[in-house]
Predict the 3D structure of the following.
Amino acid sequence: MVLDRKTEFTRRASRIQQRLKEKGLDALLVTSPTNVWYVSGFWEFIAIRLQSVLVPADGDCCFMVSKNEHEYAEKTSWMDDVRYYTEFPEAGHHQNPYDLLKDVIAEKGLSKAVIGIEEGTLPLKEFRQIQEIAPGARLVDSSHILSDLRMVKSAYEIDLLKKSGKVAVAGWNASLNVAKPGIREYEVAQAARMAATEMAASLFGPEDVNHSPLTDGVQLIQSGMRSSISHGRGSPNRLKRGDMVAMCFCMTNQFKGYRVGFSRNFALGSATDEMHRVYDLLYKAQQTALAEVRPGVPASHLDRIVREMIHEAGYGEHIEHRLGRGVGLDIAEAPDLKEGDDTPLAAGMTLSVEPAIYITDQWGVQIEDSIVVTEDGFEYLTVASEPVLPVI
């Protein structure tokens, strides 16, 4: 069952508070932009000023933002306690985020508490400022709390990711419709982004007036020799007959902040026998990995079997990255499908599975889909990949 938004975020806060109690923490200070969104429900802010959420182990959360974000925060966050600081003198308000945070810490009786912080993303300057305003508190790195909780998605999040998958697929279909010899990469990218935005908008309801369907980030597309670049932005390069064209929609498919991993290739007009063989190899490798997906399987196992297949086929030197990663609010989340990450898969984890071969200065192929792990296997968040290389 997909919960309503208020219930979803209330339950998130309750899970965080439960984890704080288990870890012996009195509060968690959330400062990284993505986690601020995850906890507050306010995705649309521009992360150039400090926005933060203080989550006490007991009691109500407090969302602290700059004044220019305050109205939007109140309209999009589920929280009742949203406060702001200014960048100029204003009666009744602090002129910086740290004095505001100091007041909230004191008000909630946390001046001498154990407070979790996100050490991995907290700049040293901000860390020192927090130490100065709460000298009696003990600051403990607690980055793992939200990272762990975010690995397993709720039904609410999976619904958003499925919609994000539709957005990505719309961009792919639009690309196929406009691709032709002579068109420039960025022109294909523009068509993809427009279609993605239109799809996102079609999935919005009247309640979404304060959310945006506009895609963000840059459309990745490389043609011909450029297709061996794993991450290349759409350039003025013109497509020509016989080109391999690689497209990644990971950066532009968002739906209310959630993103899937989704990459595709097509050949324009014709493809060599080797192009077909490599695509076939990667398709079979991806399908082999997907057949292994179920709760309890180590994340590293999927990567290992795909790499073995690619090495056996003689293309091992052309592997450039891990098999996949978690997908959600960030382009890359935990767990990683790679050697060394033995995190057991669990139902509700959402993953990209993206085997790839890049032959430098010739061409490259990457087949990427996103899935959700279920109790007995997986379901696609995107559409299943094409069994043979598309030639258009």
User: Anything to note?
Assistant: The longest helix spans residues 155-178.
